[in-house]
């Protein structure tokens, strides 16, 4: 797909009917040849911009779910893709679905057709659709995949919201404090210093802080942004990403949140692949392909290696030291009873529900705490500013 370009065309059919649409082609001549093969004479052909933001989970989930509905209703796969292409509002998805429909008409399987579009369809989609093609249950696999992706996306958004909220509030509080110390308090300082009267200790301390902010605002800004610089500079460095993951897992509350989210994703994919008839080791390979964090990819890779060497699944999980005792116990029970797929589903549901609840509890707990802290800081500054006003009357009387 990286070599392809998106083209919007308008042309005439052999019956002189005007048509328009979009297609993928490496260059203009290839696009013209593709239109000629469809019996269309191009009148206009221009290249369009491809937006990476449109290759989002919600779009592909919607397409897969709609495709499952059309297949369940009795439509062929090619007709279903063509119908989805006609009604989709985004040009690059229209062209993609139309291309898939043409490839299917040429005898190419859907999983092989999706393999050429890794930005739009991650490996999990390929594995599930390939399994659906093998088992003859493509509509069921597509619907289960769409539900899993929607649930995972909702949980990811909730976790990000729970972690993002306190950071935003703290940054706003810091910005307000710096603005008051750097711009508001100096004006009050100029007024108070015209009177020859001692200031309260709190006011004097705050004024000294305001003077320091005014003199060293550059260093203070650098100090505040310094903790974020490594994350910006080294965000694509695997070692830095591993360090971030280890630090996040070691934190008391955030660690449980991050661990729960990753375990939910791992067991959801494993449960999905197991229910679709994919072998456990192959399911682990699918999990590794869908995990982007280097630390967790290493965990899954080590897990795959230990199991392929003959270790029980529960023993390999215990050796990794990232799975909870509940995970190990239920997997061990599932291996012994032959109900591993059911245990994986139970673990997926448990970690998903627990992470949702933890995210909600974290948000509801942090909101009042941050409001109290922010109110206390700003309130202290306000009191420090207006406290000398009560003594100005005595100072003015003494001066008169």
From TrEMBL:
Q: Which residues cross the membrane?
A: 165-185, 215-234, 369-390
Cell division as a keyword of this entry, yes or no, is no
Q: How does it sit in the membrane?
A: Multi-pass membrane protein
The record's Gene3D superfamilies line, in alphabetical order, gives: Type II secretion system (T2SS), domain F (1.20.81.30)
Q: Name one Pfam family in it.
A: T2SSF
Localization recorded for this chain is: Cell inner membrane
Q: Which UniProt keywords apply?
A: Cell inner membrane, Cell membrane, Membrane, Transmembrane, Transmembrane helix, Transport
Type II secretion system protein GspF domain: residues covered? 64-186, 268-388
Q: So what family is this one in?
A: Belongs to the GSP F family.
What protein name applies here? Answer: Type II secretion system protein F
Q: To which species is this protein native?
A: Pseudocitrobacter corydidari
The primary gene name is epsF
């Amino acid at each position: 797909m990286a070599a392809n370009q998106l083209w919007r065309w308008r042309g005439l059919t052999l019956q002189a009917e005007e048509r328009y649409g979009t297609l993928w082609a490496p260059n203009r001549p290839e696009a013209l040849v593709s239109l000629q093969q469809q019996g269309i004479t191009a009148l206009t052909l221009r290249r369009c911009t491809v937006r990476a933001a449109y290759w989002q989970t919600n779009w592909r989930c919607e397409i897969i779910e709609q495709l499952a509905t059309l297949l369940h209703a009795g439509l062929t796969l090619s007709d279903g893709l063509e119908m989805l292409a006609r009604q989709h509002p985004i040009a690059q998805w229209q062209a993609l679905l139309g291309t898939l429909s043409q490839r299917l008409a040429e005898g190419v399987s859907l999983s092989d057709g999706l393999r050429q579009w890794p930005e739009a369809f991650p490996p999990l989609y390929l594995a599930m659709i390939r399994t659906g093609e093998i088992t003859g249950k493509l509509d069921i696999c597509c619907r289960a995949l769409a539900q899993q992706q929607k649930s995972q996306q909702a949980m990811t958004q909730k976790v990000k919201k729970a972690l993002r909220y306190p950071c935003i509030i703290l940054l706003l509080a810091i910005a307000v404090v710096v603005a008051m110390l750097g711009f508001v308090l100096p004006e009050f300082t100029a007024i108070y210093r015209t009177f020859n009267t001692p200031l309260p200790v709190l006011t004097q301390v705050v004024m000294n802080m305001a003077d320091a902010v005014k003199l060293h605002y550059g260093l203070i800004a650098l100090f505040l942004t310094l903790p974020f610089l490594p994350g910006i500079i080294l965000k694509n460095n695997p070692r830095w990403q591993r360090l971030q993951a280890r630090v996040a897992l070691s934190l008391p509350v955030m660690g449980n949140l991050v661990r729960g989210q990753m375990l939910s994703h791992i067991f959801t994919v494993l449960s999905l692949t197991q229910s679709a008839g994919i072998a456990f080791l192959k399911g682990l390979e699918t999990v590794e392909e869908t995990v982007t964090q280097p630390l967790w990819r290493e965990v899954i890779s080590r897990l795959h290696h230990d199991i392929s060497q003959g270790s029980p699944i529960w023993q390999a999980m215990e050796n990794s030291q990232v799975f909870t005792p509940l995970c190990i116990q239920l997997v061990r029970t599932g291996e012994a009873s032959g109900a591993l797929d059911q245990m994986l589903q139970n673990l997926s549901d448990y970690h998903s529900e627990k992470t949702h609840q933890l995210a909600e509890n974290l948000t509801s707990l942090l909101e009042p705490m941050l409001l109290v802290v922010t109110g206390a800081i700003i309130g202290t500054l306000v009191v420090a500013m207006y406290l000398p006003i009560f003594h100005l009357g005595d100072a003015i009387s003494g001066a008169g």
